[in-house]
Amino acid sequence: MKHERIPQVSQYGSVDPAPPEQEGEMTEWTKTLFDETAPMFQRMRSVFALRNHRSDEACLALCEAFTSSSALLRHELAYVLGQMQNNVALPTLIARLEDEDEHVMVRHEAAEAMGAIGDRSVIPILQKHTENPAPEVAESCIVALDLLEWVARSDFQTTE
C-alpha cells in the first residue's frame, strides 16, 4: 500500500512547493538559501522557513537572496515577499520590477507582490510599467493596481 502525504496548507493559505524547515535558526536558513551548491529543494525549504519567521530581519535576508543565479528561486522570493506583506521589501521588489535584465517571471511576481503588500506609494511605479512591452509584466502591474484599489475600497478599511 502506497503511503500518501497530504500537502500542508501554510499559514498564508498556500501549499508550499517545499515544506519549510521546522528546526534551525535564521542564520542556518540564510546560509542554505545563499548556498548555490545546495539542492534547490533545501534552498526552497529555507525560503519558506524565513517567510514563516515573519521578522524584518528574515524579510531582508530574503531580499538579499535576489543575487541568486536561479530565476526560479528569485521568482519564489518575490512570491513569499508578497505573502509576508512587509513594507521593508518594497525597495527590493521595485528594483526587480524595474530591472530590464531580470527574468520576466521574476519581474511579474515582483509587481504582484507590490500589490499584495498594499502600500499605495508604489502606484506610480506600477502605472509606469502597465505599458511594458512584456505582457507578463504589464498585466501583472494592472492586476497589482487593481488589488491596491480593491483593498482601498474594501471592508479592510476600518471606520471610527
The tally of structural domains comes to: 1
Gap between N and C termini: 58 Å
Helical coverage, percent range: 55-70%
| CATH architecture label | Alpha Horseshoe
Range of strand content: under 5%
Would you state the CATH class? Mainly Alpha
Average pLDDT, all residues: 90
What's the CATH topology label? Leucine-rich Repeat Variant
Let me know the CATH homologous superfamily.
Leucine-rich Repeat Variant
Description:
By secondary structure, the chain is mainly α. It has one domain (26-151): Alpha Horseshoe (Leucine-rich Repeat Variant), CATH 1.25.10.10. The chain is 59% helix and 0% strand. The protein has eight helices and no strands. The longest helix is centred in the last third of the chain and has 19 residues, at 135-153. The mean pLDDT is 90.
What's the arrangement of secondary structure elements?
Blueprint: H1 26-34, H2 40-53, H3 56-64, H4 71-84, H5 90-98, H6 104-117, H7 123-128, H8 135-153
What are its keywords?
mainly alpha, 8 helices, 59% helix, globular, single chain, Leucine-rich Repeat Variant
Sum this structure up briefly:
This protein is mostly helical. The chain has helices at 26-34, 40-53, 56-64, 71-84, 90-98, 104-117, 123-128, 135-153.
